[in-house]
Write a structure and sequence with these properties.
Layout: H1 2-23, E1 42-46, E2 54-59, H2 74-80, E3 83-86, H3 93-104, H4 112-115, H5 118-131, H6 137-140, H7 145-160, H8 170-180, E4 185-187, H9 191-199, H10 204-216, H11 218-223, H12 225-233, H13 237-248, H14 255-261, H15 263-270, H16 273-279, E5 282-287, H17 297-303, E6 307-310
Parallel strand pairs: 2-5, 3-4, 3-5
Antiparallel strand pairs: 1-2, 1-6
Length: 313
């Protein structure tokens, strides 16, 4: 009976995590020396070859969908646009789950006993058990460390911030509203793109080391979140970015991995956004950290010749 109950919990958890893996920007930021545009979550993009303005919103992936309505100008901007654009289209969850589930699995020739010392294995096992309904590495041992880390992040948020509903986030809300209004929904990435970033950028040993460090510093990292949430609520993108850089110092990321998560993706998106905005006025919603800094979308759009203005009412 115990194993049956655990299986139910794990299956429910996997569905939640699979969804979040599609929308959450994991990892940390690359170092930057210059600050960028700040002071708003919503930005108007006009000029150049655009017949109508588009809008760029920085989301916080675990913020409730209802928070969207409290952002100054967001509803009006959304209504004025002809289509919605996100990091990935989240409507075809059935098709996405199979791809993501396969990518989450460890190779058969590797076990956590090979990746950890006995002491570290026991620590990771016990910490996961305390966060995820008594299910340690015995249940999760077939998942890659990065997949377990994502699971831990989700459940840690739920533990420290009761009431969070991962199935009702800002990103999901925006795309759902667009579908209701029969507006096209486009993705800047495919599921394969996100799989590569989440599971294909580093070795299993490095993933295991990151998981261990994150679990050892979980309380410290969670304690920083209220201040980060406040920076987000104020639209202070510069401060939010600096706070995440401080967070990264706890468990430093490899520079190439960090660049792949933010900088490289921004550059790839800039190869698509001009044509998308030219064809139809677009309401673009991506993680707020993609907006900030020298290599953020706001700065890149301005360098590309667009007029980028904060929306404040």
């Amino acid at each position: 009976m115990k194993n049956y109950k655990q299986l139910i919990i794990i299956n429910k958890m996997r569905k939640t995590v699979l969804l979040l893996l599609l929308i959450i920007a994991t990892g940390s930021l690359y170092a930057q020396t210059e600050t960028g545009k700040s002071g708003s979550l919503l930005w108007k993009i006009s000029g150049k070859d655009l017949s109508k303005p588009s809008y760029l919103l920085g989301t916080l992936h675990l913020k409730p969908g209802e928070y969207f309505d409290s952002i100054p100008g967001a509803t009006a901007a959304f209504q004025s646009c002809e289509q919605a654009v996100g990091e990935v289209v989240m409507t075809d969850m059935a098709g996405m789950q199979m791809q993501m589930q396969q990518a989450m699995m460890m190779t058969p020739d590797t076990t956590y006993k090979m990746l950890y010392s006995d002491e570290d294995y026991q620590f990771v096992n016990d910490k996961i058990s305390s966060l995820v309904a008594g299910s340690g590495l015995g249940n999760f041992g077939k998942l890659k460390p990065s997949a377990i880390q994502m699971t831990v992040i989700v459940f840690a948020y739920m533990k420290y911030f009761p009431g969070i509903n991962p199935m009702n986030t800002m990103d999901i809300h925006i795309q759902s509203e667009a579908t209701k209004e029969q507006k096209p929904v486009l993705g800047l990435e495919t599921v394969d793109d996100q799989i590569r970033v989440l599971f294909g950028m580093t070795s299993l040993q490095n993933q295991a080391n990151d998981l261990l460090c994150g679990l050892k510093n979980m309380d410290k990292m969670m304690a920083m979140i209220p201040e980060q949430l406040e920076s987000y609520n104020q639209g202070d993108l510069n401060k939010l970015q600096q706070q995440y850089l401080e967070d990264d110092k706890i468990c430093p990321s490899d520079p190439s991995e960090s660049a792949a998560l933010i900088k490289d993706r921004n550059q790839a998106w800039m190869g698509k956004l001009p044509e998308i905005m030219k064809e139809k006025s677009s309401f673009i919603a991506v993680g707020a950290l993609h907006l900030a800094g020298e290599d953020g979308l706001l700065n890149l759009l301005e360098k590309a010749g667009y007029i980028v203005e904060p929306v404040k009412l």
